[in-house]
Amino acid sequence: MSPNPAAALVAAELTKTYPAGRGGPPVRALDGLSVSVAAGTIVALLGRNGAGKSTTVKILTTLARADSGTAEVAGIDVSRDPDGVRHAIGLVSQKSSSDPMATGRENLVLAGRIQGLSRSAARGRAAELLARLDLADAAGRLAKTYSGGMARKLDVAIGLVHRPRVLFLDEPTTGLDPEARAAMWAEIGRLSADEQTAILLTTHYLEEADRLADRVAIVDAGRVVVEGTPDELKSELRGDTVQVELVAGAAHAVAVLERVPGLGEVSADGTRLRARAESGAQAVPGVLAALDESGIAVASVTVARPSLDDVYVRHVGREFAEEAAA
Ligand SMILES: Nc1ncnc2c1ncn2[C@@H]1O[C@H](COP(=O)(O)OP(=O)(O)OP(=O)(O)O)[C@@H](O)[C@H]1O
Ligand SMILES: [Mg+2]
């Protein structure tokens, strides 16, 4: 099935509909989602709440079954040999999996034993992971006393105990402060390089996908709407982004900007307007004049090279940051 022999994970055309609950309609969580990850690389599934990221992870880790489509993880078909898949993968789910009433070390030794390691092998691996994730000093403390960043690192260590070929990280840094997030990024990057682990991670954070992932797949409504390296995705967008912050929201602002020569793809989000221009600097005077003539007060104007944010807006049609923060 695998079109790419180096792929550690290949999923094709996955669909999944959750049945209707309490009078609500059924939810089509996945609608033909395809993704693949090569050994030693990191792929990010980037999308808003409810896009289908966790459902994808659940299917690929055998916790849920797809209605249709195919998936092979570490060369094993997820529906034919779920046990085989479980041994080959590590999973760090969106919700923490550690036992709060056990120490970090105990959590890791137990996880190793569950994965079939001998007692001494489990102890050895626990010590190695505690050192590597910079948790050695806290190894003897109960997990419930860990900070958010430490707890998340312990989750990652648990997922790695049996040296999986494929690691799934469902929102590894959500809720972490910027420093803990940067430390986690460094750790994940090292993992994929050192152990040739294939990593599929999900994230709300454009910056995370940009910094960490070799390839990014933007997921919307259960499908991958665009996929590529962060640079490929950004270079698709020629020209500049012009962003205008208004003093107050104005319903007709989009129509006003759409009439400015050289400006396209105008979108609005509250008081923020966004548009694309071949040359941002040349477009700005026209933008200001048009808004001024229409009596719309401007707080600020910025011109920037395209970011992953712009790629997201282009393909999904709505702005990302506000929704992710919601
Ligand atoms: N067990 C379930 N029963 C019913 N509906 C579900 C179930 N799990 C997920 N869904 C629905 O499926 C859709 C996709 O959910 P999923 O958890 O995959 O999204 P996500 O991209 O991981 O979102 P988030 O960023 O919020 O974690 C959503 O509409 C969600 O409400
Ligand atoms: Mg999720």
Give the total of beta strands: 14
Shape: elongated
Largest sheet: 6 strands, mixed
Q: What's the name of the CATH homologous superfamily of the largest domain? A: P-loop containing nucleotide triphosphate hydrolases
Secondary-structure content class? alpha/beta
Written description of the protein model:
The chain has 2 domains: 7-231, Rossmann fold (3-Layer(aba) Sandwich); 238-305, Protein-tyrosine phosphatase receptor IA-2 ectodomain (Alpha-Beta Plaits), CATH 3.30.70. 36% of the residues lie in helices and 28% in strands. The chain has helices spanning 53-60, 82-88, 104-114, 119-132, 148-160, 178-195, 206-212, 230-235, 253-258, 280-293, 308-316, 321-325, and strands at residues 7-18, 27-38, 42-46, 68-73, 76-77, 89-92, 166-170, 198-203, 215-220, 223-228, 240-246, 263-269, 272-277, 298-304. A 6-stranded mixed beta sheet has the order 6-7-8-3-9-10, with helices on both faces. Helix 3 (104-114) crosses helix 4 (119-132) and helix 3 (104-114) runs parallel beside helix 5 (148-160). The longest helix is centred in the middle third of the chain and has 18 residues, at 178-195. It starts with 6 loop residues before the first strand and ends with a helix. Mean pLDDT is 89; it is low at 1-5 and 322-326. Bound molecules: adenosine-5'-triphosphate (ATP) and magnesium ion. Residues 53-54, 94, 170 line the site of magnesium ion (MG). Magnesium ion (MG) binds next to helix 1.
